[in-house]
Amino acid sequence: MENKDLNASNITVGGIYDMLLDSVNNEDTRPVIRLGRVDPTDNPLFRTTNVALDAVTTSVHSFNFNCYPPTHGLLQAKRAIADHLSSHFPHKLSAENVFLSIGGTQAIDIILPSIARPGANVLLPKPGYPQYELRASLCDLEVRYYDLLPERGWEVDLDSLENLADENTVALVIISPSSPCGNVFAYEHLKKVAEIANKLGIFVISDEVYAHVVFGSKPFVYMGEFSSIVPVISIGSFSKRWIIPGWRIGWIAICDPQGILQKSGIVSKITNYIEITDNPPTIVQAAIPEILEKTPNDFHSNNLGILREAANIFYDGCKEIPCLTCPLKPEGAMVVMVEINLSQLEDIVDDVQFCSKLVKEESVILFPGVIVGLKNWIRFSLAVDPSDLKEGLSRIKAFGLRHAKLS
């Protein structure tokens, strides 16, 4: 029996995951393969660095951080993040340019209401991260989507940016490394985005939650490198790179050497929203300087090696599944988008039905692409054990053959 409640257009990512998990056939004795949820802690190969554990332990045992945190965050934590980012920028950030948040999600929840005003609109990538649309809808901020082009490695459709914008456009959002596409934007491409934003008189919200999580040929580039061209509000997080999503620690960084966002009042609005929201735990904030300073490079390189292996397994395995097409071998982040070739399938009409039937028949959880704005695609997570990935791809192949149209 089909789950009629499985409507990806009107519930959250977590809601979809829970519904799919509830749809597992309990008579199937095989383990459930979870290729949808992007939580690296699900993979036993991923463990955070001992540096992070020691830093939090020291914070706890000091008895100095059992207090409420300062509204705008611990100064030493803000300064450490500012220094960390400044090493990649042509200008130096100060602690006052950084605001701590409860993960990247709360950063979105703070920024979008801060830029909303009657009639205003924001440009979002399609596909993209659904929290932006959900938050925009709650603060009466109109959303307009620009396309990411799979045939061009998920580059931004630059022409559509200019065509979408008008006098009420306040900002555009860019996500790199891209969730959900798994691509990494090149330096020159990001520079063109900055130049178009400057021409349009808007600023850029750069979602860099997956900063430095790159394992292809392209290096990661901070959008803040172009802040002399256009003001940038950067969103960062420890969740994915340090394998600690449950610690809920992120930040907002104002990259604006000309002070445009300060003069426009946007920084003041961000400050006002932070003053009426919850803050990350003081104990975790206190650990930030040591985590940033002492994490060894081999911790990050080892994790990237695991993801690189997963990307290779996925890309090669996907080629063996006739009903799926992957336009780009994953280059970064922990996710990838794959198109469903529905013309090859007999009794499946869209991505939601594909995922719903797959979990019932094969106990494999994938996310329908409509969640992230791209109907009839599916999103895979690479943050899974290689053996699970291989087994999941094998079951998906069997599922596709079972539902293939007879010639």
UniProtKB/TrEMBL annotation:
UniProt cofactor(s): pyridoxal 5'-phosphate
Species name: Vigna radiata var. radiata
Annotated ranges, domain Aminotransferase class I/classII large: 48-396
SUPFAM superfamilies: PLP-dependent transferases
Positions where N6-(pyridoxal phosphate)lysine occurs in the chain: 240
Molecular function via GO: L-tyrosine-2-oxoglutarate transaminase activity; pyridoxal phosphate binding
Signal peptide per UniProt: none
Family stated for the protein in its record: Belongs to the class-I pyridoxal-phosphate-dependent aminotransferase family.
One Pfam short name: Aminotran_1_2
Protein name: Probable aminotransferase TAT2 isoform X2
Gene3D superfamilies membership: Aspartate Aminotransferase, domain 1, Type I PLP-dependent aspartate aminotransferase-like (Major domain)
InterPro entries: Aminotransferase_I/II_large, PyrdxlP-dep_Trfase, PyrdxlP-dep_Trfase_major, PyrdxlP-dep_Trfase_small, TyrNic_aminoTrfase
GO biological process: L-tyrosine catabolic process
